[in-house]
Design brief:
184 residues; mainly beta; elongated
Length: 184
């Protein structure tokens, strides 16, 4: 059976960014997804289209085909006082590199990365962590099968989440709080 629209596909993969491994599947825990449903980057799926279990492919996605270029307007200085919890500054999350879940005035949830902590402001980057990056993938298709009713229940199958929670937008759009889920 071949990887194609509406098939459950399992892949082992390694993602290298800037010469270092940024993400990879765990041994015995392939990334499983329903092909063609928007769970993964379109160019990722295009690269494995028609592949059968046992077939391997290596490919590179430029930023335009991955998570886009870095958007300067998505890097903002926020008043430090918005990071107050019970009257105290949340210093446990205010360090460079920390990922902080936030929401905008309309209640839209987003993840920001602390870039700089100043006296009065915190510089936050709301770009995807892989924005502006060239993504180098090594992928092996390990399974292809028909989709079952259980597969359509919307449970996460990224392997690192335990597969027992709901993922409304698709696990691999970043709804999991795992680095593992953000790179596809």
């Amino acid at each position: 059976m071949k990887a194609e629209q509406n098939k459950m596909v399992g892949v082992d993969y390694k993602l290298t960014v800037d010469g270092a491994i940024a993400d990879q599947s765990r041994p015995g825990q392939p990334l499983e997804f329903i092909f063609g449903t928007g769970m993964l980057l379109p160019k990722f799926e295009e690269a494995i289209l028609g592949k059968e279990p046992g077939e391997k492919v290596s490919f590179t996605l430029e930023p335009k085909d991955g998570y886009g270029e870095v958007i300067a307007d998505a890097i903002v200085d926020l008043p430090k006082n918005i990071f107050m919890v019970d009257g105290k500054l949340a210093e446990d999350i205010l360090f460079v590199g920390s990922q902080v879940p936030m929401s905008d005035n309309q209640g839209n949830r987003m993840m920001g990365i602390v870039k700089e902590v100043g006296e009065e402001t915190v510089k936050m980057d709301f770009n995807h962590p892989m924005a502006g990056k060239t993504l180098n993938f090594e992928v092996e298709v390990v399974s292809v099968r028909d989709v079952t009713p259980e597969d359509l229940q919307g449970h996460c199958s990224c392997g690192s989440c335990g597969g027992d929670h709901e993922c409304g937008d698709g696990c691999h759009d970043g709804c999991c709080d795992h680095d593992h889920c953000d790179c596809h």
